[in-house]
Amino acid sequence: NSGVVCLLRPLLLDVVPSIRQTTALALGRLADYDVNLAEAVVKADVLPQLIYALPEENRYYKKTAAFVLRAIAKHSPQLAQAIVQCGALEMLVICLEDFDPGVKEGASWAFGYIARHNPELSQAVVDAGAVPLLVLCIQEPEIALKRIAASTLSDISKHSPELAQTVVDAGAIAHLAQMIPNPDAKLKRQVLSALSQIAKHSVDLAELVVEAEIFPVVLTCLKDSDEYVKKNGATLIREIAKHTPELSQFIVNSGGVAAVIDCIGSCRGAVRLPGIMTLGYVAAHSENLSMAVIVSKGIPPLCVSLVEEHEDHIKAAAAWALGQIGRHTAEHARHVAVANVLPVLLDIYVDTRSSEDLKMKASIFKALKYILQKCTYLPALEPLLHEAPPNIMKHIIGQFSKVLPHDSKARRLFVTTGGLKKVQEIKAEPGSLLQEYINTINNCYPEEIVR
Question: Looking at the predicted structure, is the pLDDT value of residue 174 above 70?
């Protein structure tokens, strides 16, 4: 408000190097504070002055200039675009080629903040020639530089298959994969994130990541003491599992499903989410893969997640995963039903508090529908007769109408447990599917028993 930015601008061209550097630092700290100040710095036409003589400047100034660019770029795509338009990317590439690791780190960081906003800005970073230099940076001995370079490669890769392919073509996967066992937790987080962002786009990219021999070493990350390493490790496995049955089968063969199940059991909250999704993706592909999840005891931790978690989206993911496990055959559905999952799902579905989140409600309904449409294990279905709402009731009654005509023992039990009595109380529209199911059940018994 006092007009300091305009007073600082001419000092960027001062003959004394320390004044130029301190001025840049002041501008960087102003711009870092919030978006309005960053815009004020850009409007004061500071950027051309800042980068005017960058290649000839000393390393302290280069680091500070990179900090200013990063501080401006982080706030919005528009501010990042202003940096691109003033020709700063070419100067940042020169900084990436500097011998000083601190200068490279500052430049990598600035590139990351520019690339993360959208595909166009990420493409501008690629076009400036930054990717091969960033791949060289992850091979440097300094841990801090490795971290920032890996993070920036992750930010570039996340937007599209083409951008991820650029990172792959520069040879990044092999170097990233070699760093998974590194003891530094913050580096591991960024490495796993970068590999996830590459693997998520397509089968081919996921296969390239797998071919870099990340298994079984990536499974050790699921036992890591750092929660983010766990989460990013599980996310990487999820991004590979989702593509094809073959990739999921490879994960199963590597012991990946068992490791993910242990991970879900040992953590809480958002860290659990990618593991839960992984089990759902693996189970969705085929009957055999779903059975692999069941045999590895995947259902109990998913059920625990349904009960324990407070976040609706995590509950919804657990319900979705259970639906994927139970939807294949009667045997799959029986395994889910025996684990007492159905009453839990139904409680969440009819709970008034969870009814506000419509997406959550839809996920729970879908999961119930998938399991109920295959479940012929009547002891698990019968308790639901007394509390299920009409849209779920029709699926339950439908299963009874399939099983009772062919199973005399089940018919006897259905009478003694009060199931048949409950069916008589259901008001169904004449001619509806539900009415047909009820008629089929009633036809299994003599008229006086029905009465």
Answer: yes
